[in-house]
Design goal:
It is a single chain. Helix content is about 25%, strand content about 15%. With about 325 residues, the protein is α+β, with helices and mostly antiparallel strands. Helix 1 (about 30-40) crosses helix 2 (about 90-100).
Length: about 325
């Protein structure tokens, strides 16, 4: 995994794109947004910074009939924000990049201090269009026009993740609300999250009439064809693990059998947890993005249960990762 400080996902409602996503500039409003963002971040662009790599991707998030939101929206990781109403005009793109991609004051950059300090007030101007993301997101490369391996594996993995999450959610819906906690909201049994290509943070997918605790989407090429299938898992800040939170309260984890299966998030009673986890029940991966490579359908359950459910990295699949501050996660 190449080091990066931020990933920008532009919603398109599609699962495949031209080999170079910037060539989609005449396809739809989202194409113009993608092309201008990449140009402004490119080597000759106003926001180019060799010390702060930004990945620009297209995503399948959008409306279910493959028509992208108009104006387009962007999803930002690891800041865990969705920004809506980005007009495909240079002035709008400029304001967006000034607000969300300008380098930190501490970063080395060709920009002057005055330019860097625009970040905070610029972001404030977008406050009505900013929506926090507080549930996990799984991203799968499905860019067939760029690499057929990703084109074959991406949709297959997406289907496997959705099926497993749907099955797991059906079982979890039979568990009492005290068994599932997200962001400390005790009255919310399951945070709503669409597994279909509609991206609505913390909102019910009304069109499909369903709720899901995990969002699954397909994205354009992220590098490393040899690592197909490529999967990124972003765990939001303050994401709590139900079993850890129960233990932090002094309750013993219990094996709840539903339809012949053991409730997945119950931890063994003798499994050690850190003092920090003991205090708040927080996932060790909260606020982080984990990259996995050479993922096959047989790995889907493990990624959902271990990485999202238990906050653990699967070493055999690990390509790299990112902390919320933009620094890189490495494993010895």
């Amino acid at each position: 995994m190449a080091a990066y400080s931020q990933q920008i996902l532009v919603s398109t409602g599609l699962a495949d794109w031209k080999s170079k996503i910037e060539d989609e500039k005449d396809t739809a409003p989202w194409g113009g947004v993608v092309a201008q963002i990449k140009e402004m971040l490119g080597p000759k662009g106003r926001f180019h910074n060799p010390y702060r790599n930004v990945i620009v991707s297209t995503s399948s998030f959008g409306t279910s009939d493959s028509q992208a939101p108009n104006p387009p929206q962007a999803i930002l990781f690891p800041s865990f924000q969705m920004v809506s109403n980005i007009e495909p005009e240079s002035s709008s793109i400029l304001q967006f990049l000034e607000a969300f991609v300008s380098p930190d004051a501490s970063a080395e950059s060709s920009m002057g201090r005055e330019e860097r300090e625009r970040n905070t007030p610029a972001a404030a101007s977008w406050s009505e269009n900013m929506h926090p993301i507080s549930t996990p997101t799984i991203l799968i490369c499905s860019h067939n026009s760029r690499d057929t391996r990703c084109g074959m594996l991406g949709p297959l993995l997406h289907s496997e993740f959705v099926q497993y999450i749907n099955k797991r959610h059906t079982l979890r819906s039979q568990v009492t609300s005290d068994d599932v906690k997200h962001n400390g909201q005790d009255n919310e049994a399951v945070v709503s999250f669409a597994s279909h290509p509609i991206f609505r943070p913390d909102a019910i997918d009304i069109k499909h009439g369903d709720q899901h605790p995990i969002n699954v989407g397909m994205i354009s090429h992220i590098g490393g064809h040899k690592w197909a299938g490529n999967v990124i898992v972003y765990i939001p800040p303050n994401y709590r693990l139900a079993a850890l939170e129960r233990r932090a309260r002094g309750a013993k984890p219990r094996d709840k059998v539903v339809a012949g299966q053991t409730e997945p998030l119950a931890l063994p009673a003798d499994e050690a947890i850190s003092p920090e986890e003991q205090e708040v029940g927080m996932s060790p991966l909260a606020g982080k993005g984990i990259w996995y490579g050479r993922v096959e359908p047989k790995h889907v359950e493990g990624i959902v249960e271990q990485t999202i459910g238990h906050g653990k990295i699967i070493r055999e699949l690990f390509r790299g990762g990112i902390h919320q501050d933009g620094s890189t996660i490495r494993m010895d």
